[in-house]
Amino acid sequence: MHLIAFVTCPNKKEAELIAGDLVRQKIAACVNILAGVKSVYRWKGRVESSKELLLVIKTKKSKLAKLIKKVKSLHSYDVPEIIAVAIAGGSKDYLEWINDSVR
Q1: Residue 37: CB partners within 8 Å, gap ≥ 6?
Q2: What is the pLDDT of residue 70?
Q3: How far apart are CA 63 and CA 1, in angstroms?
Q4: Alpha-helical regions (H) of the chain
Q5: Mind listing the domains of the chain with CATH numbers?
Q6: Structure confidence by residue, pLDDT tens digits, 4-38
Q7: How close are the terminal C-alpha atoms of the chain, in Å?
Q8: Which residues pair with 33 in a beta bridge?
Q9: Which of the residues 1, 70, 88, 94 has an alpha carbon 20 to 30 A from that of 46?
Q10: How far apart are CA 100 and CA 98, in angstroms?
Q11: What pLDDT shows up at residue 103?
Q12: Closest alpha carbon to 4 in 80, 61, 73
């Protein structure tokens, strides 16, 4: 099963560090870094907001545990956002490329 995982980062340097490491270690086939994200969230009983970058990570379910461990080891947040959703379908060629890229 293929997944898209989402991780928010506080700055470009951290986003690029995490994205590069995930791809180099074949945990992810591709990571898009989207700037200009504003997050509104509850933290320690207060409503907060932050400018962040969003990582859109293409991988396989079999790599999710490694992805979570790697992100936690590199991320500066106490509780980084790491969520994953299944890819219901897509281009057969692209999904095969994900398979080949994360072996």
Answers
A1: 8, 51, 52, 53, 54
A2: 98
A3: 10
A4: 12-24, 64-74, 92-101
A5: 2-101 (3.30.70.120)
A6: 999 999 999 999 999 999 999 999 999 999 999 99
A7: 13
A8: 55
A9: 70
A10: 5
A11: 84
A12: 61
